[in-house]
Design a protein that fits this description.
The chain is α/β, with parallel strands linked by helices. It folds into three domains: 2-72, no CATH class; 76-134, no CATH class; 139-237, Metalloproteases ("zincins"), catalytic domain (Zincin-like, 2-Layer Sandwich). The two termini are 33 Å apart. Helix 3 (139-153) crosses helix 4 and helix 4 crosses helix 5 (211-220). The strands form four sheets. A four-stranded mixed beta sheet has the order 1-2-4-3, covered by helices on one side. Strands 6-7-9-8 form a four-stranded mixed beta sheet, with helices on one face. The chain contains six helices and 13 strands. The longest helix is centred in the first third of the chain and has 15 residues, at 50-64. The chain has helices spanning 50-64, 124-137, 139-153, 190-202, 211-220, 224-234; strands at residues 2-9, 12-21, 27-31, 34-40, 76-77, 82-85, 88-96, 103-107, 110-115, 120-121, 161-164, 171-173, 179-182.
């Protein structure tokens, strides 16, 4: 059984999805739609009710990283809002038009958002559209960085390079050598973006996160721990 409601996390109202299923333990995760609690159908365990336990856990996470829950807050886009990327800043220009569909395109280093209403709320669909648009526009610059870093440090062969809007990871490397990156990585500082590239390039040689893998990353980025820490601290708050 699935129930969707809201939960107070700090000053924020966050979508709260409770799924009762056949399981023995409870698990909380942050998914696209909101905070998700998976709990047993019937709770006979000692201690707090699962929902109270989940609320306490979420409060602790908020105290550690308040930006973790920002992506669940609806916000209105304003004209001239700036999207800051590793390759430059793109102001958003809003244009009301008669079509029902909202479109995004880069025109002279500005993000032109055409939409059917006077005000427009930032949704996951629009974030995805903006991320996709920017990743296409910045693809050649990103690929040039990837090529430079690979030639400088590794010289590995790789497959295709692809971008996808997600929150589950910053990048991945398939067993076939294809390199995938979250469009959100474009919002990181340039040095952090380069660390993510090196991280995925290293997976072309070592697919796991063993000591051998981290030694390979360190051979290219001796201070990689600094960039990993930056992502853990600020990454959740990065979105379009």
């Amino acid at each position: 059984m699935k129930i969707t409601k809201t939960i107070q996390v700090g000053p924020l109202e966050v979508p709260f999805i409770v799924i009762r299923e056949r399981r023995r333990s409870c698990r909380v995760s942050l998914i696209k739609e909101g905070v998700c609690l998976r709990r047993p159908k019937r709770w006979h365990g000692p201690g707090e009710d699962p929902e109270i336990w989940a609320h306490r856990w979420l409060q602790k996470q908020y105290e550690k990283r308040p930006t973790l829950f920002q992506r669940y807050q609806a916000r209105t886009i304003h004209d001239q809002k700036e999207v800051v990327t590793a390759y430059g800043t793109f102001p958003i220009l809003l244009h009301v038009w008669t079509e029902r569909k909202t479109t995004v395109q880069v025109v002279e280093d500005s993000l032109v958002v055409k939409h059917p209403a006077d005000q427009i709320v930032m949704t996951d669909a629009l974030r995805k559209e903006i991320g996709t648009c920017l990743s296409r526009h910045l693809f050649e610059a990103f690929r040039a960085d990837l090529r430079r870093l690979n030639e400088t440090h590794f010289g590995f062969d790789h497959g295709r390079i692809r971008f996808k809007y997600n929150h589950s990871n910053w990048g991945s490397c398939s067993s076939k050598g294809n390199l995938n990156f979250s469009t959100r990585v474009l919002l990181t500082p340039r040095a952090v973006l380069e660390y993510v590239i090196v991280h995925e390039l290293a997976h072309l040689k070592v697919l796991d996160h063993s000591k051998r893998f981290w030694a390979l990353v360190a051979s290219a980025f001796p201070d990689y721990q600094h960039h990993r820490s930056w992502l853990k601290t600020h990454g959740a708050g990065l979105d379009f």
